[in-house]
Fold these 4 entries.
Entry 1:
Amino acid sequence: MRTVELLPDGSGDLAVCRAWRHLAAAGMPSQEAHTHPTNRPHLTLAAAGALPDAAREKVTEALAALPLGLCLDGLLRFAGRTHVLAWAVRPDPELLRLHAAIWRALAASPETGGTNPLHAPGRWVPHITLGRSRRPAWDRPDAELLPAGLRGPVRGRLTGARSYDSAARTTEVLAP
């Protein structure tokens, strides 16, 4: 599986890492515990089986829209095989346009091996993961799950992009 991910600027990255540390210090599951070198705050736009050259070229062209504004606002909880606590990313029109362009670039190429329908326009829920667990783990009020100073909207910029290859566990820079 190959993803297309947006990366926050320094202030956005620091805010998310601060939230990771806060959760870990409180004894809750946090991405802080995920020590693989590729682990860093990111916003996943799409995932496909592969990223062939033709699709990569169209994705790179669409990423010329960077930088974009980033607004982290509110927490989300996803349940399934894995439970996820995430920081919601408020989708402004520019982010939605970029997301749609990336989706079209991947969906139009049969060589991608298909796209993850959870990332389809209209279904995609933009977020940055704070923690994962095999069981429900964040039963505290939202106000306790983020450190003081990060409980209201947090603004930054999305300034870079990468692709993550889940089989090889490597990343590739796609924009700046």
Entry 2:
Amino acid sequence: MSIIEIILISIGLAMDAFGVSIGKGLTMPNGSNGKKIVLAALFGVFQFVMPLIGWAIGRQFIDIIAEFDHWIIFVLLGYLGISMIRESYNDESDEEVENNNLGFGEMMLLSVATSLDAMAVGLTFAFMDINVWFASGMLGIITFLISLIGIYMGRFMGQFVGRYAELIGGAVLILIGTKILMQHLGIMGEL
């Protein structure tokens, strides 16, 4: 997997956190810079750790499913992409995000919720020739930066952008999953 693909996956996976960050940025008071940075940092840390957990789980089964690993990657990334696209049209998640009370417990829950898809992607990393530490590090750093931007721009951007961010992120995951499948089936060469 190329560095560009890792960056695209990182951006795609960060879109959940970005959408939540925009929503939280809308409701967080101007003087709460510490909470804003902590929230973005937690999003980044969980996006770093969860792929490592998924990779460790996947490595246990690599011999069993190596013959059809490309189908697993395609299905997982496709499912995550479709879920993100579906969520971009869900009004209920917008209402949940607009709650003003943001304690550490809620930050942790939001971090876990927005990084579960990263664990599934980490599972796909187990079947690829990839440096999982580098890829997970990229996921964490990019998610932190994108989340921080989302939090600080939340008041200006509104929930409109958050909705489209998830839509675009989902489409990127689907396209990368399709590309990996096509390469493994011999329909498309390495880029």
Entry 3:
Amino acid sequence: MLGFAAAGLLAYAADLALFTYLRGPAGLDPLTAKALSFVAGCSVAYAGNALGTYRHTRPKGLKPYAVFFAVNIAGAFVQLLCLTVSHYGLGLTSQRADTVSGAGIGMALATVLRFWGTRTLVFRTGARVGSWTDEGRVGSWTG
């Protein structure tokens, strides 16, 4: 789990740095800048997980990256859903409420989804999908 968190932190830093550059000196609009930084962040997270956390699974081809990208889009959707429910459904419209619902609660739920999806759908081992063990030994989540 630590490797997954480290890859995620590196991806977040890459996403934030690129977004800041694209919005500032590059002068791109916010949606284009965020879309490009999201793709960069996903690529950094995939590389970190493929080369570090789940290096023993040796994913091949573009399919694992595509599934990883889809899992990350699902995570982003969870964050947006939390923000939408809080802001528009519950009427909690302050900046603090938006931050708590989107970047707090939404991020926590999205991280659980991303961890599960990455481990189960992208970097699965020879054991059955979703198994916490691999041929009688403790799975990769132990480091």
Entry 4:
Amino acid sequence: MAIIDTEAALHVAHRDNHTHRDVNGGWLRPAVFGAMDGLVSNLALMTGVAGGTAGREAVVIAGLAGLAAGAFSMAAGEYTSVASQRELVEAELDVERRELRKHPKDEEKELAALYEARGVEPELAREVARQLSHDPEQALEIHAREELGIDPGDLPSPTVAAVSSFGAFALGALLPVLPYLLGASTLWPAVLVALLGLFACGALVAKVTARSWWFSGLRQLALGGAAAGVTYALGTLFGAAV
């Protein structure tokens, strides 16, 4: 009895701990990409303008314009991209659905062959394929997973992607503008806040990846700092030339 209880406890512990994060929901990539892009692009835009002109107003206007334009552009791009991807997947699912309806036996044999290729005994593979093919929707889901590598019930949402991208970009792009809105008259407070934001974003991303927080943060800090430095130099060069 003690052995049975121990095994049951281990099973419950495994069930409770063996969970996976949502890696296919359609919000993480646009949110992370939007925040990083907002920070880097708006910081680079503002440093470029600051390098070419000494006017505080011009830098603030450029930052706010970059925030608005970038946020709407990112949202529109994400919506169109994810919607097109989803439509392509749905078109392929329709093809598979028609094949299941017109040639059910051939599709059943195809599924059995897939299981055999993965090491299942032929007779068992045929029996599993036969049982799984009884329900057309279940058969469609299995064929989609095995042949297309997708889950028909977990397709990314264009709206979620667009809203995530818009909000994240706007938040990231706001950071370098914020010191100016609070009264700063030079570029360096904006650069400092933006670089700290880049490091924080990189460190936060590490929470959902296998990278260490300091490596991810420093990598993003270096990339954003390099972009800002290059655009500042170009702005200074063009400002002098004009």
